[in-house]
Amino acid sequence: MRIAVTGIGLVTALGAGAEANWGALSTGRSGIRHITRFDTTGMRATIAACVDFPEDEGRAFTTAARVERLGEMVIGEALAQAGLEGPFGGPLAIGMPPVEVEWPQRLSFGVNTYPELMAAAPTAMPLYEEFLFGGASTRLAERFGTTGVPQVVTTACASGGSAIQLAVEAIRRGEARKAIAAGSDASLQPETLIRFGLLQALSTRNDPPESASRPFTLTRDGFVMGDGAGALILEEEAHALERGATILGYVLGAGEAADTFHRTRSTPDGSAIVRCMQRALDDAGLTPADIGYINAHGTSTPENDKMEAQAIRMLFGEAPPPVSSTKSMIGHTLSAAGAIEAAICLLALRHQVLPPTINQDDVDTALGLDTVPVSRPHRFTAALSNSFGFGGQNVSVVLGAGPVT
Where does the Ketosynthase family 3 (KS3) domain start and stop, copy by copy (predicted)? Predict the structure, then answer.
């Protein structure tokens, strides 16, 4: 059974809409800038790939509210492109960040324990519902009329890829003929920025912000946080053709592999990443030689880029296909990254153009990769999207080109 993609939705720091994002990505434009949403005084990292809503002025949106709003935007766009309206009539699988009540809300009550928060009438119950994990997905399911309980997954930075895998499996099992796969994240707030800073995971190259995310370079020093969301409408190919939908591409396969080495680090030999990519290829019925482009996890941290490059060369040989990291332009969107980057692969396949890895003025040649410093035309029929998360949660998705029109 072939799983067709009939709708794509994207919101990143580069803008709202899949085509708007593609226009910026394909020309190497960065969406990373200084944070103005909150005071960054005293923080080592003061930059991010922010998605700031106009309504932000005078109103503090919570992470949960932002996640829901971004999810609504991308799912709405994807459905419109697919020519579908609510009720959708298929399941929703969505990658989201783990949710907890944030500093401003805790401080506004003067409490920091769950029972007291629940008792802090009259606003405690709406706040509790807003922050309830899965609450945003339930509201999105109601908004778009999806069927069953929404499948919410948090596999760290692999969450968006995991959501695609869940949606594909639901269709393959015959539970539905169509499904929504999405990822949405807006974790950028003071507490999260401080925590990642304490882990020394963030870039501190604050000026100029556009130069901070530099995957696969000698001077890479950490990732840059980003807001964003992506959504795909997936259908049985036969179902899409029956209703006359335009097929934008295919999800050919997905694979995952646990890496139980460390809560943040990858196994030094790269074996879990290799297994993950190989399982995706096996699921798609392809060989490494069939892949014409890899959208890397490529976070711009010293260790991740080294391990991913090593694993790619282990599986694809010493002359792997072109590899780029679009996180160099849109930052690391965490739980949404897998969905966003799968969408970018589909757009690259449709346009037959490779998006670049910007900031490649000091490429780490020891990694042995063609990192696509400038976008270029490229003939290919299949791409691999990698997403690797803390806790050893690794997902790879294989995307295929749509029919030639």
Answer: 1-401
Domain that holds residue 235: 3-99+134-401
Going by C-alpha positions, the residue among 328, 382, 322 that lies closest to residue 354 is: 322
Active site residues: 157, 297, 332
Q: Which CATH number does the domain housing residue 233 bear?
A: 3.40.47.10
Let me know if residue 368 belongs to a domain. yes
43-83 residue pLDDT tens = 999 999 999 887 555 556 788 889 999 999 999 999 999 99
Q: How many domains does the chain have?
A: 1
Taking each helix axis from N to C end, the angle separating 63-82 and 135-144, rounded to the nearest 10 degrees, works out to 30
Number of H helices, E strands in the chain: 13, 15
CB 52 within 8 A of CB 13: no
CA nearest neighbour of 226 among 74, 328, 359: 328
Q: Pairing state of beta strands 293-295 and 323-324?
A: parallel
**If DSSP states are collapsed to H, E and C, what string results for 114-172?**
HHHHHHCCCCHHHHHHHHCCCHHHHHHHHHHCCCCCCEEECCHHHHHHHHHHHHHHHHH
Count Cβ atoms below 10 Å from residue 83 Cβ, excluding itself.
13
In-domain check, residue 104:
no
Domain membership of residue 160 (yes or no) is yes
Polymer length of the chain:
405
Alpha-carbon distance of 291 to 378, in angstroms, equals 12
- Greatest pairwise CA separation for the chain in angstroms: 63
Q: What is the pLDDT of residues 100-128, one digit of tens each?
A: 666 666 666 544 444 444 444 334 446 66
Which residue has tokens 């796969």?
A: 181
Q: Are 117 and 101 in contact (CB under 8 A)?
A: yes
- Cβ proximity of 283 and 165 under 8 Å: no
HSE, side-chain direction, 13 A CA sphere, residue 341: 40
